[in-house]
Design a protein that fits this description.
Blueprint (H helix, E strand, L loop, with lengths): L33 H9 L33 H6 L23 H43 L6 E7 L2 E9 L5 E5 L2 E5 L4 E7 L14 E4 L2 E5 L5 E5 L3 E4 L5 E5 L4 E3 L4 E8 L4 E4 L2 E2 L9 E7 L4 E10 L6 E9 L6 E3 L6 E2 L3 E8 L4 E4 L10 E3 L4 E7 L4 E10 L5 E10 L3 H6 L1 E3 L2 H6 L1 H4 L5 E12 L7 E5 L9 E5 L11 E12 L2 E11 L17 E2 L2
Parallel strand pairs: 11-17, 19-25, 26-27, 29-31
Antiparallel strand pairs: 1-2, 2-5, 3-4, 3-7, 6-9, 7-8, 10-12, 12-15, 13-14, 13-16, 16-17, 18-20, 20-23, 21-24, 22-23, 24-25, 27-28, 27-30, 28-29, 30-31, 31-32
């Protein structure tokens, strides 16, 4: 069936056009449809029995009837009026026109901005979430990579040449590299490992804190893989002990002792270049090339005397030691006058003092020729001139004895210094045969010898003495060996000729020992072995 409205073909039994909804008239006697029944309910009662059964509420709405009723006219109301009584016509009421709504632009723009803000916030939240997830994934990946690394670096303490070192062993695959930041070192992995050796002293400052015993060392290292990735390596921290300055007390052999001496000799061994303070006195200049220094310290009359020793060395902590020297109360008191010399270049010294009244004085010292002890038992005074038979320290014992047999002994030591002019002018020509056969009797005698020869070698010894094997032979192929002890600030050079003024002090390995008080570099007779020479200046020994 062709729709008279839009021309669309519909099925023959169609009741309405499927395209435009046009309604076709239903045959008479047909049961009204549900839409028709609804129209009847909307218009329950006609105005008269002559009116048609179907009446529209609003005649302005178009009514389209069956094509058979098209000749009734164009007016919808006339169409209904011309319908016969009881004639049923299917009526289609088009939908009411949609009411046009006016747009609120302010609300629209506000809503649009709100939507955009919400979308932006949601996008930023998504961005942060993606970044957080990416960071977590990166950290997880890094942890996974670190978990596949070899074992943690091994830190070990080693000793080389008497010094402390630390060895750090890194592990990895061949071809990888290790970069250490402090100090900056680059290492290559070979055979699965790389080793780094660090000297402990390189981390110790020149003047360390005296109260700081250790230094914490934390290395920073990075592993560079063959693919170019950089992975941090955790290196275990380790401690470096700051050592104390070397200090060895040679004499006295004990740190607590008792003595009747008025002065005690202290000999120390330290590292060369150290600053040494003994009993408040700076003796740094007296340290010889072997690191040995000797000095004397006065002791009060009686009681315990505490002697402080301090040594400061570059790269070491300050080292201190204490000596406790007791001078017991003498049964018969003896006091040496304060003006008595403890060091002199003379060959004799005057000893003066006080003693207990009624006591008499005796001494082991050799008195000057024709002299004796002058003493006044009533006043308790005494004096005598003692010869200083040897250069260096001379021991003088003084004993006071009372009538009832009580006695006390006091030891006083005097250092005889070598005067350059006097010492060198009284030098004897070297008599090697006499020195070899009578060295015991010559020991302590104030006889000076001129020793010319060359240094064969420096001798090692446990006492810290500077001993040199010195050949004084004048023959070209001869050998006349003496032991030259020299306590200057610099060592003598092996193979070099020297002229030494010295006196006999003892023996060493059956050879006579002579203390070189003044030593000159004898360039005129230098042998070909030495390469450099010292200036020909006198260097006094200690």
């Amino acid at each position: 069936m062709k729709c008279p409205r839009c021309g669309t073909y519909n099925k023959s039994n169609a009741q309405a056009c499927f395209r435009c909804g046009y309604a076709f008239a239903a045959p008479q006697g047909r049961k009204p449809s549900s839409q028709e029944m609804w129209k009847k309910k909307a218009n329950p009662s006609p105005q008269s029995t002559d009116d048609p059964l179907l009446v529209l509420d609003d005649e302005t709405q178009g009514v389209y009837a069956d094509p058979d009723l098209a000749d009734l006219g164009k007016n919808n109301a006339q169409k209904l009026a011309d319908l016969q009584d009881q004639q049923t016509v299917r009526v289609v009421v088009p939908p009411r026109p949609v009411k046009t709504r006016h747009t609120n632009w302010t609300r629209f723009i506000a809503s649009l901005i709100l939507i955009l803000v919400l979308l932006g916030g949601a996008g930023y939240g998504v961005y942060l979430g993606i970044g957080w997830i990416s960071d977590r994934l990166s950290q997880w990946q890094l942890q996974e990579e670190l978990s596949t690394l070899p074992q943690e670096p091994l830190v070990e303490r080693t000793m080389q040449d008497g010094k402390s070192w630390h060895k750090i062993t890194f592990y990895g695959e061949d071809g990888q590299r290790i970069l250490v930041s402090n100090p900056r070192k680059s290492l290559a992995i070979h055979d699965g490992k790389a080793e780094l050796l660090l000297a402990d002293e390189s981390y110790i400052p020149d003047q360390p804190d005296p109260d700081q015993a250790v230094i914490q060392v934390q290395l920073e290292a990075t592993l560079f893989t063959q693919s170019g990735e950089e992975l941090p390596i955790h290196v275990p921290a380790y401690e470096i002990e700051i050592p104390q300055a070397p200090l060895s007390i040679i004499t006295p052999s004990e740190t607590k002792l008792t003595t009747q001496e008025t002065r005690i000799l202290i000999t120390l061994r330290v590292s060369t270049g150290s600053r040494v303070i003994i009993a408040g006195k700076n003796v740094t200049d007296n340290v010889n090339s072997n690191g040995v220094v000797t000095t004397s310290v006065d002791l009060p009359e009686t009681g315990i005397n505490t002697i402080e020793i301090s040594v400061e060395s570059r790269g070491y902590r300050k080292n201190t030691a204490t000596l406790e020297v007791e001078r017991p109360v003498m049964e018969v008191p003896i006091v040496i006058n304060a003006n008595v010399k403890s060091s002199t270049s003379d060959s004799a010294v005057t000893i003066e003092g006080y003693m207990q009244e009624g006591a008499t004085i005796s001494t082991t010292a050799t008195l000057s020729e024709g002299e004796s002890i002058i003493q006044d038992p009533v006043a308790g005074t005494f004096s005598f001139n003692a010869k200083l038979l040897r250069y260096g320290w001379n021991r003088i014992e003084i004993t006071a004895t009372t009538a009832d047999g009580k006695s006390s002994t006091l030891v006083y030591q005097v250092n005889r210094e070598a005067n350059l002019d006097t010492y060198t002018r009284q030098a004897w020509v070297m008599d090697y045969a006499l020195i070899m056969t009578d060295s015991q009797n010559l020991t302590g005698a104030s006889r000076v010898y001129l020793c010319e020869g060359y240094v064969v070698q420096k001798l090692d010894n446990d006492e810290g003495r500077n001993l040199y094997e010195f050949d004084v032979s004048e023959a070209e192929n001869g050998s006349q060996i003496i032991i030259l002890e020299y306590d200057g600030s610099s060592d003598l050079v092996e193979g070099r000729h020297y002229r030494a003024y010295a006196d006999v002090t003892g023996t060493y390995n059956a050879y006579p020992v002579l203390a070189g008080r003044f030593v000159y570099n004898n360039e005129a007779q230098a042998t070909p072995s030495p390469s450099a020479s010292l200036q020909p200046t006198a260097t006094p020994g200690q």
